[in-house]
Amino acid sequence: MTPVKKHVTTKINGESVEFLCEPRQSLLEVLRDDLALTGCKEGCNNGNCGACTVVLNGRPVNSCLVLAVEAADASIETVEGIAEQGHLDPVQQCFLEGAALQCGICTPGFIVAAKALLDKNPDPTEAEIRFSLAGNLCRCTGYDKIIRAVQAAAQARLAAQQSS
Amino acid sequence: MIEFEYAAPTDLDEAIGLFAQAGDRATLLAGGTDIIVQLREGLRRADLVIDVKKIPELSQFEYAPETGLRLGASVPCWQIYENESIAAAYPALADAVRIIGGWQIQSRASVGGNLCNASPAADSIPALIALGAVAHLAGPGGRRAVPVAEFCTGPGKNVLQSGELLVALTLPPAHAGSGSAYQRFIPRNEMDIAVVGAGSWVQLDESRQRIAAARIALAAVGPTPRQAVQAAEFLCGKEPTEENLHEAGELAKQVATPISDMRGPAEYRTHLVGVLTRRTLAAAVERAGTFQP
Ligand code: FES
Ligand code: FES
Q: Which of A48, A52, A101 for mutating ligand 2's site (highest number of atoms within 8 Å of CB)?
């Protein structure tokens, strides 16, 4: 017997979204397969790699470890919502300029987590960046470029704030 | 992942009713960081998943210096370390929840879930035991309270009866001159499972020169978390000198019966018990010197 599908209303990147899902489906599955938000990636599907990171009610989570039904009446931000009106966020810009990616599978997860960090702590130390991104794994780039990109993004954000 | 139904009751009695009716066919969901993986990988079967995060008794916490902490079973890790009063009163618990998984895991994983999962290596359990925490359970047979020190009965096993759930944990008030710490050894910097973990709590006397009471608990040294009772008793009435803390570490080794596995040989783990007991005691004493509720 297939369980009855659940009707879920939630907010994704500021817009109200409705979908039907089976209780067993993860938020990652629904975002990618049903809502065509393929920015979040499936690396491990068990909470170890962070490639599937989205922000759920203000906190970064592994979307592979959230049931889609749990997202009812929540607010979700994915990597697709980070650039504003066609302008890359400083985190995205700095990853690009600092070549902080190779294959790019881990990148959306890093960008979502790094932006969540800077929103909370605008001027983190290197140790704080490394600690906060410990749940994101990269198999290609090596972490130094990623850390430097996040440091550069923090500086760019602070500079933009001062000049505005 | 196998098929299951999902329910998210908003009332504790409703949840108990559902859980009792479904019996072993149901499993509870809090942060999901263990359960969803277990369901997906076929390590656990369930026809019904009961999400307990909408039940106020489980999802809320209250702290007052006079009465202590009441921590709902589904409260996620970050709510503890981001609350300055709670982190200052119960630093061992804050130490532990800061290193359970990464940031994403801490957004969801709960201390109650970490306890119910009953892993011998769980980080929060030695901290809870050292802090004298009590688990409050509810089921079809009514309510009961069990000290966390007696909650785990084997790897992945605990005292919960069929249909019974963990509602909350309570921690006694933290008095001036008390302090605690949790540390683990892992070969990496983050995101790993303890080779050994140790949680220590001390209460200094009025003079702040001597230890009036202590509790020490260890992880990954046996099938369940272990309390080092003799080591703690040894410290009572003594000054926290290097020799005394070292001696407590040596006594703590006596309760460790670790296995040898890929994380480390038994002999190495026993050595770590001595080191981590001494270090967490020293950290607890230092914190105790300045703590005011
Ligand atoms: S895919 Fe979710 S953490 Fe790896
Ligand atoms: S760029 Fe390939 S995994 Fe990070």
A: A101
